[in-house]
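Journal club side-thread
Mid-discussion, someone asked how the predicted structure for our own chain would compare to the paper's figures. Pasting it here so we can look after the session.
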Amino acid sequence: MDPPSSAPATNPSESRAFRRWLKQASLATGLGLTPEERERYVEEQKHARCEKWKTELLSYSPPVVFMLKHLRLSGCAVPPSNIVCGSCDSTRSGGFHPSGAIVLCQGHFGGKRHMQDTLTHELIHMYDHCKFNVDWYNLRHHACSEIRANSLSGDCRFMREIGRGNASFSKQHQACVRRRAILSVRENPKCPDEAAAERAVNEVWESCFNDTRPFDEARVTTVPLVRRKS
């Protein structure tokens, strides 16, 4: 028989290990947390996953690494700190600012490939802004970059469109690019209505859809990316 210990008995509920376990259980189940604590924890998890995927994509994703290389060659290098994970409204998965920043909307991605397509999309906008001095308030300029970004990024993959409920077996890619470009241009503060957005997309469609810079220089047409005539 062991001699009695002189150390006082420890109440399990007072041990640090137990409190850590209880905290983890609360976070996992949501029990015992206030709505604010639960929301903060969910956002922290989304942010951590977004940052992890971002780091992996910047290092290993072929289209992302390719675009970063060509931005650097064009004199517009994009440091990782300029690509941030943040909270957005439910209508978008990413955004680009002409100052040189990209936002990835944490929690809005169905997977890492979805994030890859979004990041590539925004890097194409950044490339256009750097290379061609796009005026984002000019609807034709905006339309041209949206056509290119939607076409070249993977945003209009067949299965992605199926997931959006836009199944089409006849020129699916072109239909997706056109539809998404019109939606984006419609949000431009200088766009008066959907008819103006559709007209801008139609006016630059042929030259911009066929312009694959920097992915395939051999397919570049002789028509400049951005038409200056308003």
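Post-session note: The CA atoms of residues 156 and 176 lie 6 Å apart.
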